């Protein structure tokens, strides 16, 4: 007899491009940190859609904000203003301590927007000769899937067979301030950096690295662009991960949790001397800054202003890291991360562990071959977190 799960997976197997390798589970409902699959199994979500579900599934405040907006107006395009737009950009700018916001939808679009901003700023403000601008990025980076962004990826899966590649990028080792200094010159318009590399396996750079990036950008008159799409909005125990080093970038790139787990909302946030380079018609998006996105985004910002989620991530994160570092050294090589975010580096393949965790009722996913990434919703209870970590111990003991 075929199960509902098997039936549905056969459909997606046959008709969906195979650009993902999902675990054998089909989710039907979710609330808070828990999801229910089509067989009625309850599973604890320890991935939170790579941080897009920081506030848990269907947070009542976010659902209420979305419902209210659904009853009013959902899309007008930027040809007209709507009453959620001004407040959204003002509130997001204030949260980041900047002056201006350029809203987009997906994270990749916001990164593209930041790259265009840096180039345009470089030519029109810094005075770089036409088409000579360079932007520095780091080995192991993940910034999205567009042709330009994968042009500076160092992951063969992300990059191969998509050429010809967009020129104008230099790649240096992550965490290496000396290599960065050597790569920068008078035509460097930006340094694009993840404060913690998520997709690469939750790689935390050496202490002082982000401070060095800030200093080098200032010295060379280049924009420090922090991609906080995954690390930001509470994930590491602070609103932005750069705060752990007291660093203020010129440009924040935000996404994922900004949409409250309801819809894609992304943004570039910077001061007016940077984002002011755009004039009407020079950049845009049909859905960027739409009323529903702004209403949900405003509620996300209001929730972050309480500091409650950052605090949960900090204290529960300490607890999680304490437990993870006590895992047996013969199976766990290293534990990295900050707040409720961890890359557990195993001595073997991570896929069988995430498959075993699924059987034990825990949703987690490997990244690359040997890393298990843990990023539970920040609303997870301590009891549920411990329950998941107990199951991780069981799963690891078997391997
Ligand atoms: C997820 C992610 C992106 C891309 O966001 P999409 O919404 O998937 O396009 C970019 N940068 C970082 C750091 C991410 O984690």
Q: Specify the structural class.
A: alpha/beta
Report Rg. 21 Å
Named CATH topology of the largest domain: Aspartate Aminotransferase, domain 2
Please count the helical segments: 14
**CATH C-level of the largest domain:** Alpha Beta
Strand order, largest beta sheet: 4-10-9-8-7-5-6
Bound molecules: pyridoxal-5'-phosphate
What is the overall pLDDT average? 97
Share of helix, binned: 25-40%
- Regions with little confidence, pLDDT below 50 for 5+ residues: none
Principal-axes shape call: globular
The CATH H-level superfamily of the largest domain is Type I PLP-dependent aspartate aminotransferase-like (Major domain)
Task: Looking at this protein, list some descriptive labels.
399 residues; 7-stranded mixed beta sheet; Aspartate Aminotransferase, domain 2; 2 domains; 37% helix; binds pyridoxal-5'-phosphate; 4-stranded mixed beta sheet; alpha/beta; Aspartate Aminotransferase, domain 1
How would you briefly describe this protein structure?
The protein is of the alpha/beta class. It contains 14 helices and 15 strands.
Description:
The chain is of the alpha/beta class. It has two domains: 4-58 and 310-398, Aspartate Aminotransferase, domain 1 (Alpha-Beta Complex), CATH 3.90.1150; 72-305, Aspartate Aminotransferase, domain 2 (3-Layer(aba) Sandwich), CATH 3.40.640. The chain has 14 helices and 15 strands. The strands form three sheets. A seven-stranded mixed beta sheet has the order 4-10-9-8-7-5-6, sandwiched between helices. Strands 1-2-3-13 form a four-stranded mixed beta sheet. The chain has a four-stranded antiparallel beta sheet with strand order 11-12-15-14, with helices on one face. The model has no long low-confidence stretch (mean pLDDT 97). The protein binds pyridoxal-5'-phosphate. Residues 50, 106-108, 111, 142-144, 194, 198-199, 227, 229-230, 255-256 line the site of pyridoxal-5'-phosphate. Keywords: Amino-acid biosynthesis, Aminotransferase, Proline biosynthesis, Pyridoxal phosphate, Transferase. Its EC number is 2.6.1.13. Pfam families: Aminotran_3. GO terms for molecular function: identical protein binding; ornithine aminotransferase activity; pyridoxal phosphate binding. Pathway: Amino-acid biosynthesis; L-proline biosynthesis; L-glutamate 5-semialdehyde from L-ornithine: step 1/1.
């Amino acid at each position: 007899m075929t199960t509902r799960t098997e039936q549905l997976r056969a459909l997606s197997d046959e008709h969906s491009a195979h650009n993902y390798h999902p675990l054998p589970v089909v989710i039907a409902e979710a609330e808070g940190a828990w999801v229910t699959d089509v067989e009625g199994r309850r599973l604890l979500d320890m991935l939170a859609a790579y941080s897009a579900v920081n506030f848990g599934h269907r947070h009542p405040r976010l659902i209420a904000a979305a419902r209210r907006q659904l009853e009013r107006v959902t899309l007008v395009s930027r040809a007209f203003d709507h009453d959620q737009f001004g407040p959204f950009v003002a509130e997001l700018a204030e949260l980041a301590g900047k002056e201006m916001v350029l809203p987009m939808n997906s994270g990749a679009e916001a990164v593209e927007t930041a790259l265009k901003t840096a180039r345009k700023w470089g030519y029109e403000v810094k005075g770089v000769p036409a088409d000579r601008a360079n932007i520095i990025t780091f080995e192991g980076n993940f910034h999205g899937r567009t042709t330009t962004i994968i042009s500076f990826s160092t992951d063969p899966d992300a990059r191969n067979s998509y050429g010809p590649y967009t020129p104008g990028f230099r790649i240096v080792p992550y965490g290496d301030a000396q290599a960065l200094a050597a790569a920068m010159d008078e035509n460097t318009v930006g340094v694009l950096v993840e404060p913690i590399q998520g997709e690469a396996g939750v790689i935390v750079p050496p202490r002082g690295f982000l401070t060095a990036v800030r200093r080098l950008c200032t010295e060379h008159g280049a924009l420090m662009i922090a991609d906080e799409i995954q690390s930001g909005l509470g994930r590491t125990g602070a609103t932005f991960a750069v705060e752990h080093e007291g660093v203020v970038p010129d440009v924040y790139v935000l996404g994922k949790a900004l949409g409250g787990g309801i819809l894609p909302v992304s943004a570039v946030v910077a001061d007016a001397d940077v984002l002011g380079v755009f004039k009407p018609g020079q950049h845009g998006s049909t859905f960027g800054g739409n009323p529903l996105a702004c209403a949900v985004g405003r509620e996300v910002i209001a929730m972050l202003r309480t500091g409650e989620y950052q605090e949960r991530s900090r204290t529960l994160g300490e607890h999680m890291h304490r437990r993870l570092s006590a895992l047996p050294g013969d199976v766990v090589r290293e534990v990295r991360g900050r707040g409720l975010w961890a890359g557990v580096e195993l001595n073997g393949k991570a896929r069988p562990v995430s498959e075993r965790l699924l059987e034990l009722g825990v949703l987690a996913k490997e990244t690359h071959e040997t890393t298990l990434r843990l990023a539970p919703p920040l609303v997870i209870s301590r009891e549920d977190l411990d329950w998941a970590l107990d199951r991780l111990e069981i799963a690891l003991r078997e391997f």
